[in-house]
Amino acid sequence: MSTVMLKEESKRLVKATVPILAAHGETITKHFYKRMFHHHPELLNVFNRTNQKIGRQPQALANSIYAAAQHIDNLEAILPVVKRIAHKHRSLNIKPEQYPIVGENLLAAMKEVLGEAASDDVIEAWREAYEIIAGVFIEVEKQMYDQAGKAPGGWSGFRSFVVEKKKQESKAITSFYLKPKDGNEIASYQPGQYMTVKVNIPGDTYTHMRQYSLSDAPGKGYYRISVKREEGNTECPPGVVSNYLHQHIREGDVLEMTAPAGDFTLKQGEERPIVLISGGVGITPLMSMFNTLMQQGTKQKVTFIHAAIDGTYHAMHDHVAQTASQKENVHYAVCYERPTSEDQMNPYMKKEGYIDEQFLRSMIEDHHADFYFCGPIPFMKTVYHILNNWGVPEEQIHYEFFGPAGTLASS
Predict the structure, then answer these.
(1) Engineering a disulfide at 375: which of 143, 282, 318, 397 sits with its beta carbon 3.0 to 4.6 angstroms away?
(2) What is the maximum span of the chain, computed from C-alpha positions, in angstroms?
(3) Mean pLDDT over residues 355-376, rounded?
(4) Of 40, 14, 33, which is closest to residue 106 (Cα–Cα)?
(5) Binding-site residues for NADP(+), please?
(6) pLDDT per residue as tens digits for the range 82-141
(7) What are phi and psi of 367, to 5 degrees?
(8) Do 236 and 292 sit in the same domain of this protein?
C-alpha cells in the first residue's frame, strides 16, 4: 500500500468533517453523480443507472467516503473494503485516468452542498486525502489487472465469448454457457466470483455493463452465468440488461466479458462444516461453491438451504436434490414463500413462508461452521442477524451483495 502520508492539519480537518459526512453524505454523493454525468456523460457507459435511480450507488459511495474519513490515519483498516471495491473496478475496466474526474466532481459537490461548512481549507484537505485514497485504489487495481492478464488463459479488458448454450432454469432465471470466440484457453476462477458482461442495446446511446456470478465449478472449459430477468416493481425499474439477455440473446450470439473477479469466495482446505444459504437468484454463486465441493469429493458436511417464492422460481433444484440423495454428507432443505400443491409433495420442502431462526436451528446442527449466504438484502439481514445471535465469529460469516455494497448490521 502507498506510504504517502497526509499532513497533520489536513488529517485533522478531514476527521473533523466526519459528523458532517454522516449527516449529508448521501446528499453529497447524489449531487456528485448528477454533476459528473452532466460534465462527463461518457461515464454513463460504466455506471449502472438503475442503482443510481434507486439510491444504492450514492449510498454505497457515501459509506465509503465516511469510512475513509474515519480511518484516514490508518487506511490499512479499510483495506478489505478497498479490495472489494477494486475487484468491481477491475471487472468494469476502470482506468487510473478516471480517478481525477471523480475527485474533481466529488470535491465540487461537497462545496456546493455544504456551502460555508466546506471552507477552502477543508476542501484542500480533502483534495490531499482523495489523492492518497485514489492512489491506494490505483495501486491495488494495477496488481489485479496484472494478475488477471498474466494468469493462464487470462486477459485484460474485454474478450468475446460465444453463447454455446442457453438454458431456462426457472420461471425467472436462465443460464448462459459461454466459450471464448478465439478458441483459446480460459482463466480459472474462485468459486463465488463473477464476470462483467457488456452489451450494446439497439437505440440506447450508451453501453451497459453488469456483473453476474459464475454458477458452476471452474475447470470445465466454459463459463456459466445464470441471470434473473428483473421484471421491476414500484421501487425498481425493469432490468435493462437482464431482459435484453433473456429476450434477445440467442445461442451463437457473442458477448463481451472481462475476466473473473470478486472476493466472495469459498475458503478451501478447511475442515469445518459448510452451510450455504441462498434466496432467489442468490443461489448462483453458491452453486459454484456447491459444485466445486462435490467435484472435489469433499468429506465436510455440507448443508444447502434455499428460499424461493415457489418451485417454479427455484433454479437448479433437481441437480442439488439428486446430489443430496446420493451423498451422506450433503443435507438439503427448501423454504417456499407460497408453495404450490406440487411443491407440497417435494420431500426437500421443509418450511412455508420465510426463513427464520427456528427453521435454521432445526436444519443446522453445528453452528461451528463456515456460513455463506446471498440473496435479497432483507433476506441477508435476517440471516446475518440470526448468525450474530448464535455467536458465529465474523470470520466464519461470508456474504455477497449483488450491486453496490450495503450494510447488514442493525441501525
Answers:
(1) 282
(2) 69
(3) 94
(4) 33
(5) 280-285
(6) 888 889 999 999 899 999 998 999 899 999 999 988 899 999 999 998 888 888 889 999
(7) -80, -10
(8) no
Is the CB of residue 217 less than 8 Å from the CB of residue 189? no
Annotated binding site for FAD: 194, 210-213, 401-404
214 and 188 Cβ atoms separated by less than 8 Å: no
The catalytically annotated residue of 33, 99, 177, 372 is 99
Q: Is residue 189 part of a domain?
A: yes
Q: Could you give the strand order of the β-sheet that contains 274-279, starting from the edge strand earlier in sequence?
A: 349-352, 330-336, 302-308, 274-279, 370-374, 397-400
Domain tally for the chain? Answer: 3
* CB neighbour burial string for 151-165, b if at least 16 within 10 angstroms, e if fewer: beebbeebbebbbee
- Please give the grid coordinates belonging to residue 134: 485514489
| DSSP β-ladder status, 370-374 and 349-352 | unpaired
Residues contributing to the annotated binding site = 89, 194, 210-213, 280-285, 401-404
Instruction: Report the pLDDT averaged over residues 370-384.
Output: 95
pTM of the model as a whole: 0.90
CB-neighbour burial class of residue 362 (10 A; exposed 0-12, middle 13-18, buried 19+): exposed
**For residues 136-156, average pLDDT:** 94
pLDDT in tens, 284-317: 999 999 999 999 999 999 999 999 999 999 999 9
Domain that holds residue 102: 8-150
Of 141, 169, 230, 400, which residue is the catalytic one? 141
Catalytic residue list contains 223 = no
* Sign of torsion over alpha carbons 166, 171, 377, 391: negative
Check whether residue 181 and residue 106 sit in a common domain: no
Cβ(271)–Cβ(174) below 8 Å: no
Same domain, 110 and 130: yes
Do residues 94 and 194 both lie within one domain? no
Specify whether 251 is catalytic.
no
